[in-house]
Amino acid sequence: MKKELAIKPYWDKAKESNRGRFEVVETPTLSKGMHIILDEETTKHWQPGMKADYIRNTTKMVVLKDLVTNKTRSFIMVFVGSYDYLTRSRNMGRNSYLYREPDYDGMVLYYAINGTFINGWRYSNGKLVGYISPSYNEQGESSAQTRGYYDCHDVYTTEYRQDCHDEYELVGGDMETGLIYDIVNYCDYIPYTTSYQDCHYVEDSTSDNDDDDNWWNNPYPPGGAGNETNPVKPGSNNSPKAKKIFRNSNMTEANWKVLEKMLDKILADCMGEALYNGLANFLNGQTLTIQFSNGSDGLFSGNGTTAGITLGSQMESNQLFHEMMHAYRAYQETLSSYKGSNMNGEIEAWYAQYLYTSRLPEYPGSKWEKRDNTDPRRIAIKNLTNIVDHKGNIRSGKSVGELELEIANRVVPTFHENYYPADKYPFDYDRPGLENFTNLKKLTINC
Fold first, then answer.
1. Could you tell me which residues belong to the region Disordered (predicted)?
2. Dist. CA 292–CA 289, nearest whole Å
3. Domain range list for the chain
């Protein structure tokens, strides 16, 4: 059951600020009675009625304007500090939408104006370390993921609200002269426990996205993704290719246009066109979820029932292509076979991504060419072109045995030593060398 936030903005204390493409107005909020959200650790140390000045939240209403798209959204932001942070810091109130205290430790939760939880972030010692989302049963440990970047688990908060009511209390008098009652106000503290999914993001240190703050110039700032003034209208015919295979009810038309442009670029490539059409055929009218994160890398996840793609703040077509390759493979494997051959799938997706990117007109001299010649994983993938051609076939003068040795002795160890641990990315050695490029063969049969 959705619980409305019993708060209202305190406009007399509103403050304006700006950063990058965003203009922000945020104001403290007023609530009737006590209203506080605590994490699990703090809940163990505090009970209603205990006097503890450090038990507090910072709650603000935020009005965010995108100066590029001229769109405005509003939402509620709640800072829920960890027990350690609350007991040692007196600067909780300094945290804002555009500023975090250097030692901030805890969560930032975002709600729509009507009280619906949107998303949130978890911080540790001032660093962004996790993404908070609604906890869904279908997003459990059985999900197959294409990255080691997200380690997800459930976390819980306890929200206390003060429920006050008046009662008549006998204070004097008697039956002959009349009884005297006084109105007494009683308040109870009503607890609500809420579960969320906390996904820890492991940054790939080889990413080209070195500026932690560059998302301020992207159209997808973290948090508060709801209540936009120009949401996507149901049945809208804009961005038809994107909406044919993806869904996200909170995305604006501007967001969809960015996604559509990525797909236009992918469809201009013969293999990319086959990938899009093949995925659309597998979906058969259904759609994948699509969302954007503050990280720099992408993610495909699925559990056999639901599936979706998360794109990082770079928002590049080759990243989308890579995750679509994983989705395409997932529809041709069982969940257990997919998870049991995660590394096999990564090799094929990375190889296909390299082929796609290297054919782009802007590739020569680009950052993509640079990373292909400096990142040990990408070097290992690029070297496969000496044995396998662009259609997944063995080159003249080479053999399947050479391919299998190259993969087993160089490619797999390189990935396992660089951000793709063997326990999360097992390699299925029972699959013959060319079987690792089965999907590439299918997609390039007419190319």
1. 204-243
2. 10
3. 7-162+188-200, 233-443
What is the phi/psi pair of residue 214, to 5°? Answer: -70, -10
Please report which residue ranges of 168-234 form alpha helices under DSSP H. Answer: none
Q: What is the pLDDT of residues 48-69, one digit of tens each?
A: 777 777 888 999 999 988 887 7
Whether the full predicted model's pTM is greater than 0.70, yes or no, is no
3-state SS of 355-397 is: HHHHCCCCCCCCHHHHHHCCCHHHHHHHHHHHCECCCCCECCC
Q: Which residues contact 287 (CB under 8 A, 6 or more apart)?
A: 243, 244, 245, 246, 247
Structure tokens at 424: 């999360």
Find, among 95, 77, 88, 81, the residue nearest to 41 by Cα.
81
Q: For the segment 388-415, what is each residue's pLDDT rounded down to a tens digit? A: 999 999 999 999 999 999 999 999 999 9
- pLDDT tens-place string over residues 83-97: 999 999 988 889 999
As a residue count, the chain comes to 447
* Local structure of 233: helix, strand or coil: coil
When pLDDT is cut at 50, 70 and 90, the band that residue 193 belongs to is: confident
- Cα four-point dihedral sign 293, 123, 214, 314: negative
103 within 8 A of 128, measured Cβ to Cβ:
no
